[in-house]
Each structure stands twice: as structure tokens, then as C-alpha cells.
Amino acid sequence: MTDDLITWLRAQLDEDERIVRLNLGDKGLGDNGSFPDYQTYSGDDINAASDFLFNFRPPRMLAEVQAKRQILDEYESPDNHGGYADAMGFVVTLLALPFADRPGYQDEWRP
User: Fold this and answer.
1) pLDDT band at 86 (very low <50, low <70, confident <90, very high)
2) How far apart are the first and last CA of the chain?
3) Over the stretch 15-69, which tens digit does the pLDDT of each residue have?
4) For the stretch 37-47, what's the b/e string if a residue is b when 16 or more beta carbons lie within 10 angstroms of its beta carbon?
5) Structural domain tally of the chain?
6) Among 8, 37, 40, 107, which one has the highest count of C-beta atoms within 10 angstroms of its own C-beta?
7) Which domain holds residue 85?
8) d(CA 110, CA 28)
9) What pTM did the predictor assign?
């Protein structure tokens, strides 16, 4: 496990948090990189879009970002050693996997 992966993964979580925070409150109309308000659209996919936005609403996404940060903190903790560190290292590579399509991801990080 490299420090590069941890640094890169924290940057991805920061970016996810930035985007989610754009969609808190009255935002979410597609401005400034926020998610568009799909209720203004029509067509066959409107229900699927509404379901997606309900299931991945900002508070849940912020909770996921925070949980992933806690996993990284635990991995970097000085108390993390032995076989536990190996297991945590594997978890960290799994946390990075959903971001594999983003710039900077290295194939060597793939579990």
C-alpha cells in the first residue's frame, strides 16, 4: 500500500463531498456542477432518475464519504499493525475501486 493511494483516495472523497454539498438545501438545479433537477424533464426515464436521486440523496452520500474517511483513518492509525493492517490495506484498495475511471488511478492499486 502506498501513501499515493491514500492521498489520491482522500482527494476523490473531497471531490465527492464538494459535489454533494452543491446539492444541499435549495440547490440541485444543475448550476455550478450540481445535479440537475430531473423533475423538470419529461420522458420514460424520469421515474428512474427520481429513484436514483432519492436513493443517493446528499445526506446519505455525505455519510458514505465520512465512513470511508474513517476507514482510511483507521488504516493510517499507529495501532494498525500485523495481519489487521493487511486486511485494512485490502479494504482501502476496494474503497478506491469505484473511482478507477478517474484520472490518477493506478492499475497497481487494483485488488
Assistant:
1) confident
2) 11
3) 989 888 876 765 455 555 555 555 566 666 666 666 666 666 778 889 999 999 9
4) ebeeeeeeeee
5) 1
6) 8
7) 3-109
8) 33
9) 0.73
